[in-house]
Write a structure and sequence with these properties.
mainly beta, five-stranded antiparallel β-sheet, 14 strands
Length: about 190
């Protein structure tokens, strides 16, 4: 079973035409003795072609600004990006939390994200962060905004280092560093 963004219907896109900078959800569809693949921008209830009665969400993939799908591999419900420099998104002011959403790297269906943090200084960290739709927000299952509240991170006596880890994903995250030279990179996500 396969699916292509340059065609519509079974083994193609459920509705419309290919769009750049868009998350596409990948389904296996079946009915009347037929099985096919399907891309959709809907993460639930894709528009099924005639003759198909069932669908199962099996993956999601981002179509970037050049209309190229991100390269990844998948094992069960875990996505790992392959190659590329995905997600250098944050420059952090020393000792302060900086929010980042990673919209092109972690889809709305994600329940967890694997991130790598790299920079200068002795301390890096990350924690999940939620917003209430009005711009207000707070730490998810965490207390005060302090260095000790990070979900993962490291304190190493080195001038430049990197740490990586998994955090629950609630739509965005916050990152902290001791210095201003700091990068956040998405390694993958789970759904």
């Amino acid at each position: 079973t396969y699916a292509r963004l340059d065609q519509s219907g079974a083994n193609g896109l459920d509705t419309g035409t290919e769009q750049a900078e868009t998350w596409y959800y990948v389904y296996v569809i079946w009915g009347n003795g037929q099985t096919a693949g399907l891309f959709s921008t809907a993460f639930s209830n894709p528009t099924l072609p005639a003759g198909y009665t069932h669908s199962a969400l099996v993956s999601a993939v981002y179509n970037d600004a050049g209309s190229d799908l991100y390269n990844y591999w998948q094992r069960q419900r875990a996505i790992t990006y392959r190659g590329g420099n995905y997600g250098v998104v944050a420059t952090v002011t020393g000792g302060q939390w900086t929010q980042g959403s990673l919209p092109a790297l972690i889809p709305p269906i994600a329940i967890g994200a694997r991130l790598a943090l790299s920079g200068e200084g002795e301390m890096l960290g990350a924690a999940p962060y939620y917003t209430d739709g009005t711009g207000a927000g707070g730490f998810y299952s965490l207390g005060a905004k302090s260095v000790s509240q990070r979900t993962f991170g490291g304190m190493l006596p080195a001038s430049y280092h990197a740490v990586s880890g998994w955090i629950p994903w609630v739509g965005s995250a916050v990152f902290i560093s001791e210095t201003t030279n700091f990068n956040v990179q998405a390694l993958g996500w789970d759904f």
